[in-house]
Amino acid sequence: MELLWVFLVGLVFSFIGSIPPGTLNLCVLQLGLERKVATALRFALAVSIVEYPYTWIGIQFEYWITNNPLVIENFRLIAAVVMTLLGALNLWSARKPTAFARRFEESGFRRGFVLSVLNPLAIPYWIGVTAYLKSQGWINLSSVWLLHSYILGTAVGAMLLLTVFAFMAQRVSRYVSGAWAKLVPGFVLLALGLYAFVQYLFL
Asked: What is the pLDDT of residues 138-186, one digit of tens each?
């Protein structure tokens, strides 16, 4: 019963944590708006696979990282750089798609895997969430089975959220023109990247 509980807790907090706009869910939204649901699902599968080791890393280094603010700041800088670059590349490839860009976008799994690896924000998120859940007594990760049940729940939660995004975007795609479907995620990623830079430099 405890295995199921930690699995569900991981799933719920992963689902909730994947809702705010970011590199990965915006890419899934874009694919859904372009009615490429099969590609979006392959993308989501790759994201959920990468979520597993990133959650494990976050849990293993929970104490050390939370006591080193410099590490957290560097994660924020990495996120700012990645989102800004991806936003600019998204806009550029949408206007002048190269053969490589087309192949990369059509291969949902490879695209999802690469972007997930370049987006390590899952690590500080799971450090904070896991520390909070343990402090509240909501989860017990004292055994290998409990630990991996929790991590599996985080991977499944990410997959579920991105799947919902893909199908929701497909439903509203009839109201969005093809050109805007390609450009909107790029503008949003660029704005988020610039906002992250402002936070890193001034806050």
From this structure: 888 889 999 999 999 999 999 999 999 889 888 876 665 555 555 666 6
Task: Identify whether the C-beta of residue 42 lies closer than 8 Å to the C-beta of residue 108.
Answer: yes
Neighbouring C-beta atoms of residue 169, cutoff 10 Å? 23
Name the stretches of the chain with pLDDT < 70: 20-21, 62-76, 78-79, 82-83, 86-87, 89-107, 121, 173-186, 188-189, 192, 203
* Environment class of 134 (CB within 10 Å of its CB; exposed 0-12, middle 13-18, buried 19+): middle
Cα–Cα distances (Å) from 105 to 42, 94, 176, in that order, read: 11, 11, 19
CA angle (18 as vertex; 73, 114 as ends), nearest 5: 70
Q: How far, in Å, CA of 83 to CA of 62, rounded?
A: 25
- Sorted by where each begins, the domain ranges of the chain are 2-69+98-173
